[in-house]
């Protein structure tokens, strides 16, 4: 009897341990703490409208949502998909099996144009995640649990999570390094060292690019671990004045509508490719429509358009969505990156944010 009892105890213990370590199979997590291949979060500015006064409300899309932004049941600082996703970094038992890298923007100086890159990566021996975001100082762990700095609740922000394999996470590290961000934290346990060899470059400073020696824009093709999202990332070094959205539109020969396009706010229209500005957005729910004032919105995104005049160009209609925070800076050449995916459901959700279809100035422009 005691032998059977011991086996039962061991079985329960092993099951509990297995469940715990399965969580370390790092993936983006949804609001039910279930693994997903990707998600996008949009946190609108504080006081956007009724029930959105606090600045902690958010909407999201993931593989299980139906082509539209869904209002989350709780706040972004509570039991949310964001908090579930980054939870492993706060579990002490995982410390020897989890590599972590957090990076933030870097202010310009006399001889440095600055960096607008913000995000974090986590990896173990099986793969990991990349979270790109627009929130200065996130995650703030000065009080223990991760939070968004109070001063950022008044602004709108975008957060994206991708579940990636180790090859992509290493290649992504080189793209992030191109943008020369401030490295807030990097921790690579000895047991994980061999799986993230390219992360070691963050341990030593990269020679800064100068105005006369700007590094070429890095282009990274990527696919999420379960192959549900495919896309491109463009990373530019500080001092490079070229518009990443324009570069992307030119490569894909598409019409690209851009929100938060402060750095390069000129409209460019041609028969081959075009850039148009989205001046305002809205969150459209069944009960109410919330209009967002982009003066307090630090979120930037772009969507290709299937407008009829795109057919005059060199490419078929494409369903691209790009997010980033390099172009929502005022008149500078900060380092930064944009991540673009070709996925109809993601595109439709972002396209529905537009209040109206942007236009080019004159017929001669196209």
From TrEMBL:
PANTHER family linked: DEOXYRIBONUCLEASE II
Signal peptide bounds: 1-20
A Pfam family hit: DNase_II
Family from the record: Belongs to the DNase II family.
One MF annotation (Gene Ontology) recorded for this entry: deoxyribonuclease II activity
Protein's UniProt name: Uncharacterized protein
GO biological process per UniProt: apoptotic DNA fragmentation
């Amino acid at each position: 009897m005691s032998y059977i009892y011991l086996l039962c105890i061991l079985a329960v213990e092993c099951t509990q341990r297995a469940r715990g370590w399965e969580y370390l199979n790092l993936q983006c997590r949804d609001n039910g703490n279930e693994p997903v291949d990707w998600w996008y979060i949009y946190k609108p500015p504080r006081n956007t409208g009724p029930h959105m006064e606090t600045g902690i409300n958010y909407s999201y899309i993931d593989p299980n949502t139906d082509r539209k932004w869904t209002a989350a049941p709780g706040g972004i600082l509570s039991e949310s998909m964001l908090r579930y996703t980054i939870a492993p970094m706060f579990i002490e038992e995982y410390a020897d099996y989890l590599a972590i890298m957090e990076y933030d923007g870097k202010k310009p100086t006399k001889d440095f144009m600055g960096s607008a890159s913000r995000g974090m990566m986590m990896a173990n021996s099986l793969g990991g995640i990349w979270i790109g975001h627009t929130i200065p100082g996130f995650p703030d762990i000065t009080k223990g649990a991760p939070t968004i700095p109070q001063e950022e609740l008044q602004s709108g922000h975008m957060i994206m999570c991708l579940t990636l394999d180790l090859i992509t996470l290493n290649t992504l590290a080189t793209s992030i390094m191109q943008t020369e961000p401030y490295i807030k934290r990097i921790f690579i346990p000895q047991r994980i060292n061999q799986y993230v060899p390219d992360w070691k470059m963050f341990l030593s400073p990269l020679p800064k690019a100068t105005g006369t020696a700007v590094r070429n824009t890095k282009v990274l093709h990527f696919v999420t671990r379960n192959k549900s999202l495919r896309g491109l990332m463009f990373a530019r070094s500080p001092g490079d004045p070229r518009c990443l959205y324009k570069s992307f539109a030119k490569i894909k020969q598409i019409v690209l509508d851009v929100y938060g396009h402060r750095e390069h706010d000129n409209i460019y229209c041609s028969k081959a490719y075009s850039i148009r500005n989205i001046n305002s957005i809205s969150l459209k729910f069944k009960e109410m429509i919330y209009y967002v004032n982009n003066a307090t919105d630090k979120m930037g995104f772009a969507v290709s358009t299937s407008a009829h005049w795109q057919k005059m160009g060199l490419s078929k209609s494409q369903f691209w969505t790009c997010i980033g925070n390099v172009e929502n800076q005022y008149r500078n050449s900060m380092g930064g990156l944009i991540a673009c995916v070709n996925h109809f459901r993601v595109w439709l959700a972002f396209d529905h944010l537009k209040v109206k279809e942007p236009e080019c100035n004159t017929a001669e422009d196209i």
